[in-house]
Write a structure and sequence with these properties.
about 375 residues, alpha/beta, TIM Barrel, 2 domains, ten-stranded mixed sheet, 12 strands, binds iron/sulfur cluster
């Protein structure tokens, strides 16, 4: 059976992937305290005979004081701390490698409690996510270890899918980045490793933890979920009450071109995808973004630009053009700057708002997964 037809969106157990050898055993199956929403935490403490005031104290330790040990929660009784330690854990990933500098985009490689690696990317306030000027501090977060979706231009797919990240592992990326930056992250993009909509339950919980005023208190409009086009989950997310933003990794304006580089397109064709996007725009006030990596000789034909313009107009989308950045081990090339401009000009002629970022080195979206890939290969 075609691999694409076997997509299972929650746990993806039937996808064939190359398993990673963890270099430390999985030590605990207890839930992490930081994966509980304020309501869940209050209910859990109530079941232990504790008042809602204790829940408020606990939330304060987790999200304001940000301790990483239950023993440090000094205003809770020793007895309650023991009960909490018995039921929950409070591990956080560790940063094992940093690439970039204080003033530029910084990529962090994180080691999880089971020895797996993921990465996140911090984009300073002076550089917007699309290369524009920005006063936002943006973090690009991962949602899975590896990825099953196998997009042909992406490093994350090269080692296959290993597992979903838990909600606490997703939000911990923000806590660690803020600790390093000594600043508040106020814009989140789910464009790191993994397909976020294939991990929807944990994604939605992470969204709740990020947006809750008892959690990280980031406005929902400052959260962008990027998907390769998982149609049923797009519809589910459209029904979610929060005004989160959506970006689609399109990378091809026709099925013929898109299927060459995105196997997901064999499962949900472009027409079906755009029906889901129309549903999204009927439910949300946020403008959609279509991401389009320009790959020489693959999807950069100007006819693709004309079709892309029509599709973008049909859902009122903004287009972000990203000239391809080389990924070690992959064969694709970047088109010339003149050709990239010509492609953008077709969109402009059709009155489609579009950005084109030509500078090199800002490789986070085209080459997510590279740091982790290097780490995995060096520890094999
Ligand atoms: S582009 Fe996204 S969905 Fe596609 S393989 Fe990479 S991480 Fe997965």
């Amino acid at each position: 059976m075609c691999k694409k037809l076997s997509f299972k969106l929650e746990n993806q157990p039937s996808l064939d992937f190359k398993p990673q050898k963890p270099d430390s055993p999985i030590v605990s199956t207890k839930p992490n305290l930081r994966s509980l929403t304020a309501t869940e935490l209050t209910d859990s403490l109530a079941a232990l005979g504790q008042s809602s005031y204790r829940a408020t104290q606990l939330l304060d330790w987790l999200w304001k004081k940000r301790v990483n040990s239950i023993d440090d929660m000094s205003n809770l009784s020793a007895e309650l701390r023991e009960i909490l330690k018995d039921k929950y854990e409070l591990t956080v990933p560790t940063v094992v490698r940093t690439q970039g500098s204080q003033d530029t985009t910084r990529k962090f490689l994180l080691k999880l409690h089971d020895g797996r690696f993921v990465e996140c990317v911090l984009i300073p306030a002076s550089v917007g996510f699309y290369g524009n000027k920005s006063d936002r501090l943006t973090l690009c977060v991962s949602s899975q270890v590896g990825c099953a979706f196998d997009c042909k231009f992406c490093a994350s797919g090269l080692l296959g899918f290993t597992r979903n990240l838990s909600a606490d592992e997703i939000v911990s990326q923000i806590l660690l980045a803020e600790e390093i930056a000594k600043d508040k992250v106020n814009n989140i993009v789910f464009m790191g490793m993994g397909e976020p909509l294939a991990n929807l339950p944990n994604l939605l919980k992470a969204v709740e933890l990020m947006t809750s005023h008892q959690g990280l208190n980031i406005g929902a409009r400052h959260l962008t979920i990027s998907t390769s086009g998982v149609v049923p989950q797009i519809k589910k997310l459209a029904d979610h009450p929060k005004q989160i933003r959506l970006a689609i990794s399109l990378h091809g304006a026709t099925d013929e071109v898109r299927s060459q580089i995105m196997p997901v397109n064999d499962r949900w064709k472009i027409e079906e995808l755009f029906q889901a996007l129309k549903y999204w725009t009927s439910k949300k006030k946020q403008r959609l973004t279509l991401e389009y990596i320009l790959i020489k000789g693959v999807n950069d034909d100007l006819e693709q630009a004309r079709i892309l313009a029509k599709r973008a107009k049909s859902v009122g989308a903004f287009v972000n053009l990203i000239p391809y950045n080389t990924v070690e081990g992959l064969q694709w090339e970047r088109p010339s700057e003149d050709h990239c401009r010509a492609f953008r000009n077709v969109l402009s002629k059709h009155d489609v708002p579009a950005t084109l970022r030509l500078e090199k080195g800002h490789d986070i979206d085209a080459a997510c997964g590279q740091l982790r890939l290097r780490e995995e290969l060096s520890t094999e």
